[in-house]
């Protein structure tokens, strides 16, 4: 299977004049589905070939290496090498490092993948608040996911950089930090109360709870993590009650 290129050749004039277009969650999710299909195909190949080649010396080690590569090396290596996995490329996306404007280095690409794989879907909540539509793993590794320059897309299929902050005044960092801390403490206390309500006997730590209790606890934990991430971003962007940003009066704004 040929992998489509993530960087089609375009004239330098076109690339320079076109503003950066950032990926929507929907397009990134489609890329994830394609990558999941690639990994599933590798897994299916290993399962089928193991039955056929079980007597071949060394095939077991090869199969484990193939699985390890699919689950842990596929995305980091492709992002480092091409700036895109198969899923990214199929959806005309590329991962760009802020410092270089090119594909991130191998260490950065691997760190990005580990953060995303560990925290999961809550990472993407931050896309709704960040200026360049970055998920948490993008922010921490100083990368963005952009539409490949020169690819024609409808305006609803990508995002431009948010510019509304240019006319907004944020509260002081100290105020935002204090408000954020207060919200996070409240969330933590609420999380503890809910966990105690569903697990009064304390069966979660030793895994002796019923499947229903564990599933409910995992759902509550997921909501708590997502709410905490939203709180951090919301506080820093001045969206929380107690530390809200305010719009500059029109007369005070600088008119070019």
Describe the structure.
By secondary structure, this protein is mainly alpha-helical. The protein has helices at 12-17, 25-52, 59-82, 86-90, 106-119, 136-140, 173-198, 211-236, and strands at 93-97, 143-147, 168-169, 246-247. It has a two-stranded antiparallel ribbon with strand order 1-2. The longest helix has 28 residues, at 25-52. The N and C termini lie far apart (51 Å). The relative contact order is 0.12.
Please write the string of helix (H) and strand (E) elements. Answer: HHHHEHHEEHHE
Form type: flat
Strand content: 5-15%
Mean pLDDT: 85
Taking all Cα atoms into account, the compactness measure Rg is 23 Å
The strand line-up of the biggest sheet is 1-2
- State the helix count: 8
The description of the largest β-sheet is:
2 strands, antiparallel
* End-to-end distance: 51 Å
Please give the domain count.
2
What portion of residues is helical? 40-55%
Name some characteristics of this structure.
256 residues, mainly alpha, 2 domains, two-stranded antiparallel sheet, 52% helix, 5% strand, flat
How would you summarize what this structure contains?
The protein is mainly alpha-helical. It has helices spanning 12-17, 25-52, 59-82, 86-90, 106-119, 136-140, 173-198, 211-236, and strands at 93-97, 143-147, 168-169, 246-247. Helix content is 52%, strand content 5%.
List the helices and strands and how they pair.
Layout: H1 12-17, H2 25-52, H3 59-82, H4 86-90, E1 93-97, H5 106-119, H6 136-140, E2 143-147, E3 168-169, H7 173-198, H8 211-236, E4 246-247
Antiparallel strand pairs: 1-2, 3-4
Helix pairs in contact: 2-3, 3-5, 7-8
